[in-house]
Amino acid sequence: MNRSNVMVAGVGGASLGTEIGKCLVLAGRYNAFGCDISPTAYGLYDGLFKETFLADREDYISSVMDACEQADAPWLVAGGEQPMILLSAAQQDLVDRGITLVANSPDIVHLCSDKADTFDKLGEAGVQIPRTRIADSTAAISSVGLPCIVKPATGSGGSVSVFFAATANEALIYAEFIHRTGNIPIAQEYVDINEGEFTIGVLSLPDGSIAGSIALRRVLDSKLSVAYRGRGGVISSGYSQGHIGDYADLRRQAERIALAIDSRGPINVQGRCRDGVLIPFEINPRFSASTYLRAMAGFNEVDILLRYLIDGEHPGAADIKPGWYLRSLTEAYIPDEELK
């Protein structure tokens, strides 16, 4: 079997990029390559990649395209939120160099880059969403209710700068901090974890049809999976682990979200349940950092999308292995002379 060459842009340690690399290796039909702007990115020295490249921070797009050409890799997957945004905006340049970005459409990436716009659209589509407001006044905080979550309107992968606020004054302090970092703060209704927190991947094909979905109920016992816990609230981190099962009704709800925003690739819906209803608090228009856990369970999103793009292959129903999918961290030693 001829293996397709695939470049993963952004392969930092314990990152989405290295998880995508694992998915490619697990599929057994690809040569995985990696690139990153940091010479100490763990993935640059990870044996799962056939070859890795140091990208130029100042000339990022060109250097990633050069790496693709050196690796003879016509397929490019973003290994993180920032590479996704940058590469999505440069899709025409990629096409001109014969490179296909394996990602959602630029319109969806743009929409989901602004949480306020995303939740407005979901609300208009009839999706039950947490109360969400721009956190610019005490009145805005009151309309959301307390306790609440305060976070940036853009970014925040892995729960960066996401705060649990128990009082209006506390919420405004967090909002001011976010504002001073150059972002717009939003306040969002806090949904408790009594009925569980879920991360659900929904893969849509470029024609808008849904290839499949998979749900993981998160366990929040491990320090690795918790960003904050206290005063009656908990915020999960970017490291999902827990139980993968059928969860058919919740998956259908997540699939409706994908259809509501006209997704044309992978999205990851994070939410908590209330009265059996999935209430999303974060939607990322990319593969999730738990994508390898999903591949282990029988739903290899990366492979499914690539097979469709390369050979026009339509996936069949995934045979999911229910059970507990857990994770940890690994270490590596790099001699001085081998640093890229």
Commentary on this structure:
With 340 residues, the chain is of the alpha+beta class. The chain folds into three domains: 4-103, Rossmann fold (3-Layer(aba) Sandwich); 131-189, ATP-grasp fold, A domain (Dna Ligase, domain 1); 197-325, D-amino Acid Aminotransferase, Chain A, domain 1 (2-Layer Sandwich), CATH 3.30.470.20. Helices cover 31% and strands 26% of the residues. It has helices spanning 16-27, 60-70, 81-89, 91-96, 106-112, 115-124, 138-144, 168-180, 248-260, 291-297, 301-311; strands spanning 4-9, 30-36, 51-54, 75-78, 100-101, 132-134, 148-152, 163-165, 185-189, 197-204, 210-218, 226-230, 233-236, 242-245, 266-274, 277-284, 323-325. Helix 1 runs parallel beside helix 10 (291-297). It is globular, with a radius of gyration of 20 Å. The two termini are 32 Å apart. 46% of the residues are buried. The mean pLDDT is 95.
Topology:
Blueprint: E1 4-9, H1 16-27, E2 30-36, E3 51-54, H2 60-70, E4 75-78, H3 81-89, H4 91-96, E5 100-101, H5 106-112, H6 115-124, E6 132-134, H7 138-144, E7 148-152, E8 163-165, H8 168-180, E9 185-189, E10 197-204, E11 210-218, E12 226-230, E13 233-236, E14 242-245, H9 248-260, E15 266-274, E16 277-284, H10 291-297, H11 301-311, E17 323-325
Parallel strand pairs: 1-2, 1-4, 2-3, 4-5
Antiparallel strand pairs: 6-9, 7-8, 7-9, 10-11, 10-15, 11-14, 12-13, 14-17, 15-16
Helix pairs in contact: 1-10
